[in-house]
Every structure is written in C-alpha cells, then in structure tokens.
Amino acid sequence: MDRKMSPFLKPIEQFEVGDYMTDISVGDRHGDIITLHSLITDHLMLIILSDSCEPCFESLNAVAEFAETREQANIVVLLSSDEETMLQVRQGLPESVKLFGVDYADIGRKWKTYRFPWGYCLNRKGQILTSKGVGAVDLLAEAYRPFLRQIDPVPSP
Prior knowledge:
The chain is an alpha/beta fold. Helix content is about 30%, strand content about 25%. The protein is built from six helices and seven strands, in the order E-E-H-E-H-E-H-E-H-E-E-H-H. The protein has helices at about 35-40, 55-70, 85-90, 105-110, 135-145, 150, and strands at about 25, 35, 45-50, 75-80, 100, 120-125, 130-135. The strands form two sheets. The protein has a five-stranded mixed β-sheet, covered by helices on one side. Strands 1-2 form a two-stranded antiparallel sheet. The longest helix has 16 residues, at about 55-70. The N and C termini lie far apart (about 65 Å). The model is unreliable at about 150-155 (pLDDT under 50).
C-alpha cells in the first residue's frame, strides 16, 4: 500500500557539511546588529545553545574550558535565554568568546538546527567544515580539528 505523507509534515531543512552558512544578523549586548560573516576571521566555531536544554549548561562549561586552552579559537556562542541568564553566562565565559542572545524560534528558522548543544565550524568563506553535537570538551576539540594545523601549528623541533 502506498502511503502519502501529510501535507502538514515538511522535511526539516538543515545546514550540512559543505554548505555555506547564510550571513545572518544578530544583535549584540549593546543593541548593535552584527552579521555572522563579519565575525569570521580565518575560521569560526559557532555554538548554538538553549537554556531549555540541560546538557547545554554542561556545554557552556566545556566551551569555557576549551576557549582557555585554545586562545586562537574564534568562538561565537548563540544562546536562547533571558537577560539574567545571559549576564551569568557572560561572567562565566572567557572574554575571547563572543556571546549573543537569539530567539528560540530563530534557531530552527535561521540557524537550521533542532538539536542542542550544536556546533558548526566555518572556514574563512563561511563554508561549514564540521557540524556536530558539542556537549563536552572532547567533542569541541573534534569539531575544531580542521583548524588545528591552520590556527595552532605544531612547533618545529
């Protein structure tokens, strides 16, 4: 028997490795609008979290630890949360990590992810090199691997 899918069920559109991330705008804590592509240096590690996701709080600790050991890492965290929680999170992250608040609805609509905690690593052109769950330091390191030689070269003996 041939079954038809309900017209109300649409396939979930997601960014995949190899895609180019859309140049999406976010507001900073001063109310200024910043585009995603303006945050890219030679790379960008983009971490998407929500305060409605319990593993995301552990991920924040992992991001802080990872950022402290990888000073050259260009890390942006997008967090769906209230202002009070954003202030607490800001205090717990190293200054090198850029934190932006996003609406929960925009996470799926603009950032095309429905899983948390999630990370994308982008090259200088905005192309996605890795897309994966990033709930622990080892998972962050694995996502960051494409940049290790480029950003943290192995010292010559």
